Amino acid sequence: MRIPSRIIGGALIAALLTQMTACGTIIYPDRRGQIEGKIDPVVAVMDAIGILFWVLPGLIAFGVDFATGAIYYPGGKTAQIDPAKLKPAVDAQGNVDKLKLQAILESELGQRLPLDDPRLIQHRGSVEQLAAFGLVPAA
């Protein structure tokens, strides 16, 4: 009878410790340090389940996740590239060579962007924008 009670006790202690250390902080350590943003419902629900079973550890989990910022979705990432570095990807008619553009973006950003992805939304610039970059608009 002693062994089953020790197993149950060990499982209970492990569950309490995981709730006290906060779900979002353990699962998403890269989100730490954020100040604000949209709350991730998955992390919020896991913390709420902690409140449902163990009130104090669940509240501590919420507090730790809010304090560390792990409860928020990660912020969007942006990058800027000098337009002069993009000129080799545009030919004389104003058409963009996707392979050259992808190579330039990969060398500048250090990431490979899938420019052939069907979900990619392409926007056309105005004639004034092209002239500002010293490009000839295509007819």
- State the separation between the terminal residues, measured CA to CA: 85 Å
Number of strands: 0
Q: Into which percentage range does the β-strand content fall?
A: under 5%
Structural class by secondary-structure content:
mainly alpha
Please work out how many helical segments DSSP would assign.
7
Mean pLDDT: 78
- Largest sheet entry: none
Instruction: List SSEs in N-to-C order.
Output: HHHHHHH
Shape: elongated
Task: Give the proportion of residues in helices.
Answer: 40-55%
Radius of gyration: 25 Å
Q: What number of domains? A: 2
- Low-pLDDT runs of 5+ residues are none
SSE diagram, text form:
Elements: H1 2-20, H2 23-27, H3 41-53, H4 55-68, H5 83-86, H6 98-109, H7 127-132
Helix pairs in contact: 1-4, 3-4
Transmembrane segments: 7-28, 48-73
Protein name: Polyribonucleotide nucleotidyltransferase
Keywords: Membrane, Transmembrane, Transmembrane helix
Distinctive features:
139 residues, mainly alpha, 2 domains, 53% helix, elongated
Describe this structure in words.
This protein has 139 residues and is mainly alpha-helical. It has two domains: 67 residues, no CATH class; 50 residues, no CATH class. It contains seven helices and no strands. Helix 1 runs parallel beside helix 4. It is elongated. This is Polyribonucleotide nucleotidyltransferase. Keywords: Membrane, Transmembrane, Transmembrane helix. It comes from Pseudomonas boreofloridensis.
Give a concise summary.
With 139 residues, this protein is mainly α. Helix content is 53%, strand content 0%. It folds into 2 domains: 2-68, no CATH class; 83-132, no CATH class.
